[in-house]
Structures are given as structure tokens and as C-alpha cells.
Specification:
The protein is built from 14 helices and 13 strands. It is an alpha+beta fold and about 425 residues long. Strands 4, 5, 6, 7, 8, 9 and 10 form a seven-stranded mixed β-sheet that branches. The protein has a four-stranded antiparallel β-sheet with strand order 3-12-1-13. A two-stranded antiparallel sheet has the order 2-11. Helix 1 packs across helix 12 and helix 10 packs antiparallel against helix 12. The chain is elongated and about 100 Å long.
């Protein structure tokens, strides 16, 4: 009996026991489907992170922060250790040819906004003019926080379009108006609205907000200098700051030069703290490693499902051998060699796993597309993951089908013919 005849015989056997065959395939379907879905979801997450990465300056984005030295005599940061506004201005002037935008954020503070006897949660951020350029947020009415606002300690702010519509009925109607905020520490602050930005959520956060039915965004931005004074600080101090370099600037070399300059100029006598840097590419590499580890962990779980499915295939093939003992005896009595009997059952096992694998691939693609619709980013499964899934399905068929097939091949034909 040739390979084609074995395939047709296997398909005939599956048709005669449809429910049993489907239940046997179920573990393979779930395992393969999970692997494909995980692969697709990983691609979607990578695309989402890459979109954020590109919207925030891409490879031109670099960050500097204070860090404790390995041999530091203390394990805490003192007030004098922080990066000052004067340090940042010095860096801006010294490396002006390489810097496109300086991005500053002095922190955040939570509070409440009262609108028609109802309280809404808000978060107040202290930022500079470069923050808007780095975040690519679109101002749809008025303007954003300016350098003059920061230099002159103005009590201005920029609110979202959702806030503007909720409070004033329209975006343009909000510009020039005043909002009163009650912070969680008990302080109150009045801010003049100079601009309204378009609030946008992408990916999974957008889907979650839509499902919750929430139509509010509590993010309000004000000049970082005013924010610092509001927080009781008479100086502008930062734990970190971010720069967008100009196109063509080597981020790694630029960071090394800035780090060396700041440490030699401002932290030479500091025995505990120094300036460290991180490029956007290094952050992407770290995120990629985390996503890879997450995918690996979930794939291992899916692999366990495949293992259970394979055991199920072995079990049903042993049952099939028992049920067809007399058939095997007849074939052997007619001269069929052990290899032909063995191949018959291995092929049947492969067919079961292969059909289950194909269904699992389709199931995984469906799950991946559903996840893509929810997140708002699509990514087709890779050819490699599909090829791996098909190959793995066939390998499971051979591995878990060999023992029952070998057992069938070794049956004594006389005893098999006597079997009822």
C-alpha cells in the first residue's frame, strides 16, 4: 500500500469517527492556535511600541538622569544632587548645533476639578515648550505652553478637547477662561487656559476607554517653572531631562560627550551621584527583550497544551489499533510487511495532527485579527511561525504516532485474526 492509499485510508477512518477525531485534534488546535495568536499579538505589540517610538522622536530621542555610583558612600539622593535648569541651559548652548528640542517635565500632581457640582479627577503636569514637540500632540485651539510662560512664571495651562467641551461647550470657547483646581494636598490653584490639545489614545488603551464608556481626560499641562513654585520649590530641579538630536547626529557619541561634559563640569566633586544616559534605541532593545521573554513564557504554556494534545493522539491511536486488530491480522496474513502496517498508522497520526494544525493556524489568525481590531494595529502572522506550526504538527504526529504504529506492526497475525 502506497503513501496515497494510507492517506485516503486515514481520512476514511476520521470520517467514520468525526467526533472522536475532533476531540483528539482539540489539544493540537488549541496549542497551535495559541502559538499563532501569540506570535501575531507579539507583532502587534511591537508595531504599537514602534509607533510610540517614532512619534516621540524615534532614534533621535536620548535621555539623561542622575544615578548613584557603584561605590557611593550613601544610598540616597540629596537635594544638591539634582539636575538644575542652569545645567540644562548650559548643555543647550554648548551643544546647540546637535540639539533640536529639549524636553522637560518637572513632575505631576493629582487633584480634582469641579464642574457643575461634579468632581472630575485631573493630573497636573509641569512641562516646557519642547514637550509638545516631542509628544507630537496637536493643539486645536490657542497655543501650547511657551518659553515665555516658563521664564515669566505664568499661571497658564493647556487642557484637552474633552475637558474643553465638558466645561465650556467647545474648544475655542475655552481659550482665555480660568479653571480652578483643588489638589490632593489641599492646595488650590487657578490657571488661565491658553490652549486646547486634541486628546488621542491609541491601541489597547483606546479600546479599554471605549469599553468603559469614559469620555474624560484629566491631563492638564502648565509651565514647569510655575509648577515648581506651586510645589514649594524656588529652584528648577530635575531627576532627568530628554533631548531630541538633529537628524544625522550619532546618538551614542552625542550622549557620551554630554555625559562627560556634565559629569566633569558639575559632578566632579560629587562622590555619590553621576549622570547616566539612555538612547531610544537601547530602550527599544530592552522593550524587545521583555516582549520576547513574555512571548517565550506564553509559548511554553502553549507548548504544554500541544504536549497534552500529542498524548491524546497517542491514546486514540492505541484505541484505534485495538479496534482494528482483526484488520491488521488480515493485512499481515495477506503478506503486508511490518513497515507497511507501521506506516499506515503513522500516516493516520500525522493526518490527525496536520488537520488539527491547519485548523489551529486559522483559529490563531482569527484570534490575532480580533486582538488587532481591539488594539487598533494589525499585523499578519509571520510565514516562519506558520511553517513552524505545520512542522511541529507533523513532528507531533510522527512522535506520538510511532508507538501505537509500532505496536500494530508487531502484532502476531494469528493472534490478531483470533481477536474479536
Amino acid at each position: 500500500m502506497g503513501f496515497f492509499e494510507n492517506v485516503m485510508l486515514a481520512i476514511s477512518g476520521l470520517r467514520s469517527n468525526k467526533m472522536r477525531a475532533f476531540l483528539t485534534m482539540l489539544g493540537i488546535i488549541i496549542g497551535i492556535g495559541s502559538v499563532i495568536a501569540i506570535s501575531t499579538l507579539g507583532s502587534i505589540m511591537e508595531n504599537s511600541v514602534m509607533d510610540i517610538f517614532n512619534s516621540q522622536g524615534g532614534a533621535n530621542l536620548v535621555g539623561f538622569q542622575i544615578s548613584m555610583k557603584e561605590d557611593a558612600p550613601r544610598d540616597y539622593i540629596m537635594d544638591d544632587d539634582f539636575i538644575t535648569g542652569d545645567m540644562i541651559h548650559d548643555v543647550e548652548q554648548r551643544f546647540a548645533e546637535d540639539i533640536d528640542v529639549t524636553v522637560l517635565s518637572s513632575g505631576s500632581s493629582s487633584g480634582k476639578m469641579n464642574i457643575r457640582r461634579r468632581e472630575y479627577d485631573i493630573t497636573l503636569y509641569g512641562v516646557n515648550a519642547g514637550y509638545i514637540r516631542q509628544s507630537m500632540t496637536k493643539v486645536i485651539a490657542g497655543r501650547y505652553v511657551s518659553e515665555k510662560d516658563c521664564d515669566q512664571l505664568r499661571s497658564t495651562c493647556v487642557i484637552s478637547d474633552k475637558q474643553a467641551k465638558k466645561i465650556f461647550g467647545s474648544e475655542r470657547g475655552a481659550v482665555g477662561k480660568t479653571v480652578s483646581l483643588t489638589m490632593n494636598d489641599g492646595n488650590m490653584i487657578d490657571l488661565t487656559i491658553v490652549g486646547v490639545y486634541q486628546y488621542q489614545l491609541s491601541g489597547m488603551m483606546s479600546a479599554m476607554v471605549n469599553m468603559m464608556g469614559e469620555d474624560w481626560n484629566g491631563e492638564i499641562y502648565m509651565p514647569y517653572t510655575t509648577f515648581n513654585r506651586f510645589q514649594g520649590s524656588n529652584e528648577d530641579k530635575f531627576y532627568y531631562f530628554t533631548l531630541n538630536t538633529k537628524t544625522g547626529v550619532d546618538a551614542e557619541n552625542f550622549c557620551k560627550e554630554v555625559k562627560s561634559y556634565i559629569n566633569n563640569s558639575y559632578y566632579r566633586d560629587n562622590d555619590a551621584v553621576e549622570i547616566m544616559y539612555m538612547t531610544a534605541q537601547s530602550q527599544m532593545d530592552m522593550i524587545g527583550q521583555v516582549l520576547g521573554m513574555l512571548q517565550l513564557a506564553i509559548s511554553v504554556i502553549a507548548g504544554i497544551s500541544l504536549l497534552v494534545g500529542g498524548i491524546g493522539v497517542m491514546n486514540i491511536m492505541l484505541v484505534s489499533v485495538t479496534e482494528r486488530t482483526r484488520e491488521i491480522g488480515v493485512r499481515k496474513a495477506m503478506g503486508a510487511p511490518n513497515s507497511a502496517i507501521r506506516m499506515q498508522f503513522i500516516v493516520e497520526s500525522i493526518i490527525i495532527c496536520l488537520i488539527g494544525g491547519v485548523i489551529g493556524i486559522l483559529f490563531g489568525i482569527l484570534l490575532g485579527n480580533i486582538a488587532g481590531l481591539i488594539v487598533g494595529t494589525t499585523a499578519p502572522p509571520t510565514i516562519g511561525s506558520i511553517a513552524l506550526a505545520v512542522g511541529f504538527s507533523m513532528a507531533i504526529g510522527v512522535f506520538f504516532g510511532y508507538y501505537p504504529a509500532n505496536r500494530a506492526a508487531k502484532l502476531d497475525p494469528i493472534e490478531a485474526l483470533r481477536y474479536e
